[in-house]
Amino acid sequence: MNKLLKNMSITAVLLAISLAAQLMRMPQLVTGTVVNTCFIICILTAGLKWSLMLSLLTPLGGWIFGILPPPLFPMIPLIVVGNFFYCWIFKMLINKKFLIKIIVPALAKTLAIGIPGYFTIKYIIPGTVLDKIFIVFASSQLPTAILGLILALIVNSRLTRK
Q1: pTM across the whole model
Q2: Among 68, 82, 109, 122, which residue has the least CB neighbours within 10 Å?
Q3: What's the pLDDT band for 15 if we cut at 50, 70, 90?
């Protein structure tokens, strides 16, 4: 199979899994873990650029399907940037020790979303219920990113088993 077609197909399947997980309206811990797992599996099977594409499409899909609360629409660029950091840093650390390649990308994603998101809500959109919604959303980023990485490494080890 053509490499481009293979990578596009892998990414499409992972996008479908990510969107299906969001549509099932499971708890954020489950949904976020599944979506983050898809990002990492995409890196490991199709490559970083495909994972970055997936990182862009999943928050947009979440907003379109109503998973991301409408008031958090202004946070979509921050979520995309956080996802990009997560994928890119994992790719950079892929050959490092287990804890390094798990904790650093997850922490980077959480901080990339959390810090600018906090200031955006506090100073640009103050006095709304957004601060409470955002705290719940942002606080789930670290555990779902860590669990997503661990699950992706387990799934990938099964996929690549000879």
Answers
A1: 0.89
A2: 122
A3: very high
